[in-house]
Amino acid sequence: MTGLIRMNAEQMRRKGLENAEAKRKREKDYITQMERMSRHDVGGLFDVRAIAKSKQLKEQKNYYDPNQAEKEFSDMLQSYGMFGESQKWIDYIKESGKNLDSFQLRLLGKRLSDMIETMRAKED
Q1: Which value, to the nearest 10 degrees, does the dihedral of the CA atoms of residues 33, 34, 37, 43 take?
Q2: pLDDT value of residue 86
Q3: Cβ distance 105 to 69 under 8 Å?
């Protein structure tokens, strides 16, 4: 014999039930612990659930969204009466070899806005 203890079907079934019950208890304890940590001070640690639900995270995702930045860029050009010009500037960014991301669009928008305001000030 190799030293293994042979079990009959009833013993195997009982052992399987015990293992399943122990696993359910561990999962329940873990969920209880996570809920307790989320409700109270986590001792200087970050509460991931609170961060994921936060308004600031949603605003940050919105800020880094290239589609939102493109819409804001188009609205900015329209406010200066430059209808349909946004696609030309977006194509310019793409041709210059830079990635079209929210940072590049907002930077270009800021520079164009400053330039237009300077030109308006000189005209007046």
Answers
A1: 90
A2: 81
A3: yes
| Residue 46 in domain | yes
Which of 71, 70, 64 minimizes the C-alpha distance to 94? 70
Q: What is the average pLDDT across 35-64?
A: 69
d(CA 45, CA 47): 6
Angstrom CA distances, 87 to 18, 36, 40, 69, 72, stand at 65, 51, 50, 13, 13
Q: Is residue 66 part of a domain?
A: yes
- State which amino acid sits at residue 112: L
User: What tokens appear for 97 in the block?
Assistant: 């070899």
Side-chain-side CA neighbours of residue 28 (13 Å) = 6
Show the domain range for 93. Answer: 60-123
| pLDDT of amino acid 91 | 84
How many CB atoms are closer than 10 A to CB 69? 22
For residues 32 and 80, membership in a common domain is answered with no
Q: What is the pLDDT of residue 22?
A: 94
Half-sphere exposure of 124 (CA within 13 A, CB side): 5
